[in-house]
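Q: I have two molecules that I believe assemble together. Could you output structure tokens for the complex as a whole instead of separate predictions?
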Amino acid sequence: MAYHSVREAMAAFRRAPGLAVLSAMSIGLSLFVLGTFGLVTYNVEVTLRSIERRVEVVAYLRDDVSAAQLEVLQNDVGSFPEVENIDHVSKFDAIRDAMQDLEEFREVFTDLEVNPLPASIEVQLKSEYRDPESVERVAELIALYPFVEDVRYGREWVEKIYQLRRLGGAVAAILGIAFAVVAILIIGTTVRMAVLARREEIIIMKLVGATDGFIRRPFLLEGFITGLAGGLLALLLTYGAYLAVNGSLIDLEWLPPLWAAAGGLAGGVLGLAASDAALRRHLITYA
Amino acid sequence: MIKLINVYKEYPRSGLALKNVSFHLRKGEFAFLIGPSGAGKTTVLRLIHMAEQPTDGEVRVSGYSSGRMKRRDIPKLRRRVGMVFQSFRLLRDRTAAENLAFALEVTGARRSEIKGKVQRLIAQVGLAARAGAYPEELSGGEQQRIALARALIHDPVVLLADEPTGNLDERASRGIFDLTRDINSAGTAVLMATHNLDLVRRYPQYRVIELADGAVVYDSVGETSEPNGVS
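A: Yes, here they are, computed for all two components at once.
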């Protein structure tokens, strides 16, 4: 039975090689658009993640904070589920960093008799808690300590990054679905043409008692192979586009292997689904 | 073996095709199904082959019932019911022998069993010398013989023939009919839809069921009066 399916699917490619190549190319091109978009989305994601890693809550401490109070604060905040890491920046560290970072003011700092910069703790959050609500919640909790003078966390850009990420996700989903539908329609039309071209053969199969599964399998295999070929072509084109752009226009990261494999395989799965849908509509009974 | 019990068939566009049709075709029986075009002969054959479902009533074929029939059982039924058409329905790109082999291949038969069976059947219909010919190289009568051989490939209990001689000249028609009688003599029941009344008159020993406007108007075994009483 498997032998028959493979033989018939291969015979279909031999009978109409032009149609098979054209379908695989059409699927490849529509998935290529999807692949390029996936590459862009992935790189935006990578960039956003690196920016997000810098999301931190800074709590400035009063000058009269005692070592015991500081320890309590560090222990308390360290036990928050959102918190990944805490760094203590003493008044001395603060002025040293300022002198290093702001070289033009070095003399101003040197002339000072009293260090005006406060000590602080810098709180880094776990990646899943870098959304605006979580950051704000942690900042508010830290602000409740009486020896905490002020809390800063760059509210505006935390919100912007978050919005950008959500927008990226939504656009990726919409475009992804649109191009998947295009690929399904192309494969569906191809299989429908193949079914119509072999209508008489299908009628005879039904007439002599072939099961639906037996009749459908070669067409499903044909759809899967066409889709897979399209998926691999798309992967190749996307990689070509990546090589062309990377380094010359901007620095890009290539897709993780799982994404790339899923993209190639998606072509095959789409081919299978489209063939199945086309067969359901056209393989009802004999005339 | 084949029972139609108060069968109605209605199509959404063309309306009622069969009205209260009942008859019982017994094992090994030969019956003609006659009537003008549009009387419902083909619909009856399609119902028996389960290519259609009755709108009302029941069709029973060799232990299967239209009412309880599952889709996956239809192929099993069709292996017990052979069918031939006026238009032969052979695959043009395959030889006579390949057309027969195809019918076995698609039902999952073993390759070793296919060759022997094809040779035996092709000899049975008298075309052993033409096994390698393509349909277009065969006469109409020869094509119908191949179609008959294909219909017999699964050793069916009944052969349904839809105007099998409709496209053939007198001599070829007689040859096909004689072959059908041989098939019947070997134990296969035959239900033959035909316009050829000469043929029907020539063989008065066979049962005749006449349809008009979708209803049975005559049955030579006189079962029309008590459709549910048949056994």
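A: One point stands out. The first strand of chain B starts at residue 2 and ends at 11.
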